[in-house]
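To assess whether ligand presence alters the predicted conformation, the chain was also submitted together with 4'-deoxy-4'-aminopyridoxal-5'-phosphate. Input:
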Amino acid sequence: MMALADLPLRDELRGQSPYGAPQIDVAVKLNTNENPFAPADAVVQSITERVVAAAGSLNRYPDRNAEELRRSLAQYVRELTGSPIERSQIWPANGSNEVLQQLLQAFGGPGRRALAFEPSYSMHRLISRGTSTEYVAVSRPSGFALSPELVMSAITEHAPDVLFICSPNNPTGDVATAEVIEAAYAACAGMVVVDEAYGEFSGSPSAIELLPGRERLVIVRTLSKALELAGARLGYVVAAPSVVDALQLVRLPYHLSAMTQAVGLAALEHRQSLLQWVDELKTQRDRIAAALAELEYVVYPSEANFVLFGGVADESQLWRSLLDASVLVRDVGISGHLRVTAGTAQETSTFIDAISAITREPAA
Ligand code: PMP
């Protein structure tokens, strides 16, 4: 049998490993920034009814342009931000990862360059690679928050076709201010993509408010986090209608299955119910931050549903010790740091108790 190395694989994929956090069966999963609360019974009921209705027409292709779902997403965004967003400004796909891929297919590619500020969401780098887009990373300053000056000088130096700003940033939790995004947009001739996967957890205004008059600004959002639907695979773009036209040039026909559209429509009818845990998760996030500070770790202020902390002597060892205590957190590849997702009150207590015991344990 042929091994992977024997296949005529593209050069840039040789020696690479697939992306993904370990999926380990453990009691307390705080490693992938999911919502620990399952959709309420009424939501499950509505999803079931919509899916049953859709199942009866599965011999037909789904609505290629997902019109009804886009209308519903536009209404959600209007309610959330107060911005007058229309259906024509929304484009959904299978998770915001697919949205990001479509953006790079349309605006990146061979001979084009993407720029991001690391540490940040590593799929920006990987999707760039997968679409043969050159990827340049500029380091964030200590404390990780971006300034207009840093962003503008990086843009001037690298002249990106696609600029990624993740806000709140995964894994650091900081938010890019409106000044940073305005400065980036003014300096950049390419597309400015603001990844707001964790937007609902942030008290800061969404970059969606900056859309009027900015045709190259793109906001990427998802139903995977605050809206409890990571398993449904549904993310979307909010942008000018011309950007949606561009994405339609690269999307696969019928990319969003009738099932996914049905799930999204049913869930959005219950958007208030799905959002009900956001405040509770912010409370748990703040509990984690306070407990870690008490243990004298370096804690970065977060507007997302996770906390990055540093001052860890050996992050692999701490990760393993927490796993031994049935708590799975994320080693994000930053030396001396780990990231932990806010869980239920009980899960959060389990994490705090475990890390307190490990940290206070006298060295053997
Ligand atoms: N953007 C960021 C910043 C993320 O952290 C994630 C998921 N971890 C995604 C996008 C992708 O999420 P999804 O494909 O589930 O929408």
